[in-house]
Design goal:
alpha+beta, 8-stranded antiparallel beta sheet, 5 helices, 10 strands, signal, DUF3558, DUF3558 domain-containing protein
């Protein structure tokens, strides 16, 4: 991961969970994360307005809104713990943190280049395919108890970053990347098909 992303991931892994509040209906402005014009968005999960820098695309996939409750439960996370941690600096990163019984995760969609991330991560990661989509997976660059899986998209990448350091978790911890490709294979079909 780039230094900026690595720091962002580390910060997101330290953030506490919070329960989603009452839902409200929101009309999305042009250029927002979702392609849907009107939808029910839980309070506190409203997407930011994107202003991508030159050479970068709008990120059309919002992990906090486009990964449904049933999918989060299927991969072991509690939908009520969703929390936004977006980063709208040089690149756009729509980030959703979520907690489960065995691990925490940051689910990210960014318009950063897959090739750049692979160049940085290749000494600790291996190339793979998730439902036929190009990806790589390996230990997190900052937290050796975490795993990072990056999937290529036409706008950049979708990242699943997990952390096994859960208070009260059994000892010893399971290998950091156990089950992470399987989680990604459940998320991958939700990424817009043109991506």
């Amino acid at each position: 991961m780039k230094a900026g992303h690595a720091g962002l991931i580390a910060l997101s892994l330290l953030m506490c969970s919070c329960a989603a509040e009452n839902a409200k209906e929101l009309s999305m402005p042009p250029g927002s994360a979702s392609q849907t014009t009107t939808r029910v968005v839980p309070a506190g999960l409203e997407p930011p307005t994107q202003h991508p820098s030159p050479g970068h695309q709008i990120v059309p996939f919002d992990p906090c809104l486009d990964i449904d409750d049933a999918t989060l439960r299927k991969i072991g996370f509690d939908p009520a713990t969703r929390k936004r941690a977006d980063d709208l600096n040089e690149v756009t990163a729509l980030i959703c943190t979520v907690d489960g019984a065995d691990r925490q995760a940051s689910l990210m969609a960014t318009n950063s280049a897959f090739e750049n991330e692979w160049q940085i991560a290749q000494k600790r990661a291996q190339l793979t395919k998730i439902n036929g989509r190009e990806a790589f997976v390996g230990l997190n660059g900052i937290n050796p108890d975490g795993c990072t899986l990056v999937m290529r998209t036409s706008f950049g990448e979708v990242i699943l970053d997990t952390n096994n350091l859960i208070p009260g978790h059994r000892d010893p911890l399971p290998p950091a990347c156990d089950g992470v490709p399987e989680m990604a294979s459940v998320i991958e079909p939700l990424i817009p098909k043109e991506n």
